[in-house]
Write a structure and sequence with these properties.
Number of strands: 10
Number of helices: 4
Largest sheet: 10 strands, mixed
Radius of gyration: 19 Å
Protein name: START domain-containing protein
Distance between the termini: 62 Å
InterPro entries: START-like_dom_sf, START_dom_prot, START_lipid-bd_dom, START_lipid_transfer
Organism: Pseudomonas asuensis
Keywords: Signal
Domain START: 26-202
CATH superfamily: START domain
């Protein structure tokens, strides 16, 4: 019995430690206007991952509708210059996006394979994975060489949803450190602000 008690306590302590370490991986970089942005370093990369979280007065269906409207979603996606669907197959789709950059940095383009899964709570998760060789890069654009991310939309109380946007990428070419550091905060912050405005403006 004594051994069982010690084992239980040890297991609980290890669990608490692991949870603490996991929580410390993400560091709060911005908390403004109801949007929280976290960043963390990624082993083997000089570019940080980012995570943005916001609560929106909307249903999961409304968010899904806005995301699938590629013509208008480019208006609230940060620095989106062009967005179009290349292929749609079941719960999978492939999209092409052009991303404008401040001078003198070259604009980027990226092909994303998006897989949508329904969450048990009535929400959904979209997993994003870059496929840089799916199409040739366009003239005047640098192809994003790697991209991993996800959208998570979960219903909450009183007709709201919690939206999480998370990603990490290797943008290809050369990016000044000041731009890289600002992008990982500005991208989720402005994107989620724009999505919330679009979702709540009807």
């Amino acid at each position: 019995m004594h051994t069982f008690f010690k084992t239980t306590v040890l297991t609980a302590l290890v669990s608490m430690l692991c949870t603490s370490v996991s929580a410390d991986e993400w560091k709060l970089a911005k908390d403004e206007d109801g949007v929280k942005v976290y960043t963390r370093s990624v082993e083997g990369s000089k570019y940080k991952a980012y995570r943005g979280v916001v609560t929106i007065k909307a249903t999961p269906e409304r968010i899904e509708q806005l995301q699938e409207d590629t013509t208008n979603s480019c208006k609230w996606l940060y620095r989106c210059q062009q967005l179009k669907v290349l292929k749609h197959q079941g719960q999978d789709s492939w999209t092409y996006m052009r991303i404008e950059m401040p001078w003198p940095v070259a604009a980027r383009d990226v092909v994303l394979h998006i897989k949508t899964e329904q969450a048990g709570t009535g929400g959904f998760i979209r997993y994003l994975k870059g496929e840089p060789t799916y199409t040739p890069p366009a003239d005047g654009y640098v192809r994003v060489s790697s991209f991993e991310g996800k959208w998570q939309v979960l219903p909450k109380a009183a007709g709201t949803v919690e939206v999480t946007y998370e990603a990490q990428s290797e943008p290809g070419g050369s990016i000044p450190s000041w731009l890289a550091n600002s992008f990982v905060v500005d991208a989720p912050f402005n994107t989620l602000q724009g999505l919330r405005k679009a979702a709540e403006s009807r």
